[in-house]
Design brief:
Distance between the termini: 66 Å
Strand content: 25-35%
Shape: elongated
Structural class: alpha/beta
Number of helices: 13
Oligomer: single chain
Number of strands: 21
Length: about 475
C-alpha cells in the first residue's frame, strides 16, 4: 500500500460552500446572547471574513465594548461593509453617549432606513442634558413596522405626518419633562396604522398628558410608575374605535378618558382605587376583566352587561368577601370567576400540623382572628349563580388558622350550594397539609351542591 493511500481524507467544508444568503440566515438564527459568535466567524477563513456583517438582524450595544470610541468604530465598519444590504432588525443601544456622538447615531439610523429596516430597537441615553433628535428620514420610513424606543430623557416624537407603516410601538422612558418643563404632552395620533402601543415609564413630578388616538389601535398597554412621595395625577385620553385589549398598571391612578372604545373585549387593571369608578365606567363593555381587589368596590357601581369572565387579584392580607358576592349580584351574565391570592405564601408544615408564617401578630392573636366569621350570605342569590356561572377557580387558598380562612371557606361553600349550572370548581392551595386537605374535602362533600354535575378539585402541589 503506497504512502498516499494512508493519508487521512480531508473533510469537505460543505458549510462554507453554501451561498452567502444561506450563511447569513444561519448566523441570524443565533440568539441575541450569542451574537458575538457571528462576528467571531470572521477568523475562520477569507470566505467568512465579512459574512457576519450581512446578516439581516444587527445587534449593536456599547456595553460590549471597552470604550465608546471602539463601539463607534465597530458600528461604522460593520455598516460600511454591508453597504446597502437589506436590514430586517436593527438593535442599537448606546448608553452614556455624548453630544458629539449624536452625528454617528444619526448616520447609523439613516443607514438602517436606507436599507429598508423593518424592526428598530433603539436605546439612546445621553450623558448630560443634551437631547438627541431623530433623523428626518426615520419619520417617513415606509418599511418600519416595529419600533422599540428607550430613552432618558424622552426623545421628541413629531406631531404629525410620519411613520406610515408603523404597527407596533414600545415606548420606555423616565421623567419625560424633566429637562424640558414645557414638554407636558405626547400625541400618538400621528401613527395612522398603529395596532400595538406600550407605554412604560416613570412620569415624574409634573402632570403629563398622553393623547392616544389611533384608528387601527387594537392593543394598549400602560405601565405608569411614580416615586413613593409623588402623587401627581397624569392624563390619558384614549380614542380607539378598534381597541380590543387594555392592560393598565398605574402606581397612582391617573385621569383616564375613554372615547369610542365600545369594541374593547379584554381589560387587565392593576391600580389604586382613586377614580376607579370613573375608569371602570369607561371600559364597561368588556367581556373579560382582571382587576386588583381595591377596584372591586367600583365594580358594584358600573354596569358590565357583556362581562363573561372576571379575575380578582387579592392584594391584601384580609379580603372583604362581601364585596365579591355584592359584585356577583350585578354580573348577571358572568360565566367564569377566578380569585387569586397573588401575595399568598404556602404554609410551612411538618407532618399534618400547619404553621402560619410571614405574619407579624403572635400566634394566639391569629387563632382568635381566624375563628371569627365576618362574612354573611347576601339576601338574594346572585342571578349569575342560578343561570350562567360555570367555572370557579380559587388560587392560593390559605387553609385554616390564617386570616379570613372561615370567610373564604364559607364563600366557597355558598358558591357550591347555589351554583345551579356550575361545572367545575378548582381550589389551588400550594403546600396545604394532607390532613387539612382531607378536612376540606369532607366539609365540601357533605354539602348539597346546587349542580349535580359539578366537579371539585383541590390541588396542593407547589408548581
Amino acid at each position: 500500500m503506497d504512502s498516499e493511500s494512508k493519508r487521512p481524507a480531508i473533510a469537505e467544508d460543505r458549510i462554507s460552500a453554501l451561498p452567502d444568503a444561506v450563511l447569513c440566515h444561519i448566523l441570524s438564527c443565533l440568539q441575541p446572547e450569542f451574537r458575538k459568535c457571528a462576528v467571531s466567524t470572521s477568523i475562520l477563513s477569507k470566505r467568512w471574513k465579512n459574512i457576519w456583517a450581512y446578516v439581516p438582524n444587527l445587534y449593536f450595544d456599547n456595553h460590549d465594548f471597552p470604550s465608546s470610541a471602539d463601539f463607534i468604530a465597530f458600528v461604522d465598519r460593520a455598516l460600511q461593509i454591508r453597504n446597502s444590504s437589506a436590514i430586517q432588525k436593527f438593535h442599537l443601544h448606546f448608553d452614556g453617549c455624548q453630544a458629539e456622538d449624536f452625528c454617528h447615531i444619526d448616520d447609523w439610523i439613516s443607514t438602517a432606513v436606507k436599507c429598508n429596516v423593518v424592526e428598530l430597537d433603539l436605546s439612546v441615553n445621553p450623558h448630560g442634558e443634551e437631547m438627541f433628535e431623530l433623523p428626518e428620514g426615520l419619520l417617513t420610513c415606509e418599511t418600519l413596522m416595529v419600533w422599540k424606543l428607550w430613552s432618558n430623557p424622552l426623545i421628541n416624537i413629531p406631531k404629525a405626518g410620519c411613520y406610515p407603516s408603523l404597527k407596533e410601538l414600545h415606548l420606555k422612558f423616565m421623567y419625560p419633562n424633566l429637562l424640558n418643563p414645557e414638554n407636558d404632552f405626547m400625541d400618538f395620533s400621528q401613527f395612522p396604522v398603529l395596532e400595538y402601543l406600550w407605554i412604560d415609564g416613570y412620569l415624574g413630578f409634573k402632570s403629563f398628558t398622553f393623547i392616544i388616538s389611533g384608528p387601527e389601535l387594537k392593543t394598549l398597554r400602560i405601565n405608569a410608575k411614580s416615586e413613593n412621595d409623588i402623587r401627581v395625577a397624569h392624563v390619558f385620553y384614549i380614542n380607539a374605535p378598534k381597541l380590543e385589549r387594555l392592560d393598565v398598571q398605574d402606581d397612582f391612578l391617573s385621569h383616564y378618558t375613554f372615547v369610542n372604545t365600545r369594541s374593547l373585549v379584554e381589560a387587565n387593571v392593576r391600580a389604586y382605587t382613586k377614580r376607579a369608578t370613573e375608569f371602570l365606567a369607561g371600559i364597561s363593555s368588556v367581556k373579560y376583566l382582571a382587576i386588583s381587589s381595591p377596584f372591586l368596590r367600583a365594580c358594584s357601581v358600573a354596569a358590565f352587561d357583556n362581562l363573561r369572565e372576571l379575575k380578582v387579584v387579592l392584594e391584601m392580607d384580609y379580603f372583604k368577601w362581601s364585596l365579591l358576592t355584592k359584585v356577583l349580584g350585578i354580573l348577571s351574565n358572568l360565566e367564569s370567576l377566578v380569585v387569586d391570592h397573588e401575595r399568598y405564601e404556602p404554609p410551612c408544615h411538618h407532618g399534618d400540623s400547619e404553621l402560619v408564617i410571614g405574619l407579624e401578630e403572635c400566634q394566639e392573636t391569629k387563632e382568635v382572628f381566624a375563628d371569627v366569621l365576618r362574612w354573611s350570605p347576601p339576601e338574594f342569590v346572585p342571578s349569575c349563580l342560578l343561570s350562567h356561572l360555570k367555572t370557579i377557580c380559587i388560587k392560593g387558598f390559605k387553609g385554616s388558622r390564617s386570616f379570613g380562612y372561615r370567610d373564604e371557606k364559607e364563600v366557597i361553600k355558598y358558591l357550591l350550594k347555589n351554583g345551579q349550572v356550575l361545572q367545575k370548581m378548582t381550589i389551588y392551595s400550594p403546600g396545604l397539609s394532607r390532613a387539612a386537605e382531607k378536612k376540606l374535602d369532607k366539609e365540601l362533600s357533605v354539602l348539597e351542591w346546587g349542580s349535580k354535575t359539578c366537579q371539585v378539585e383541590v390541588i396542593t402541589k407547589v408548581v
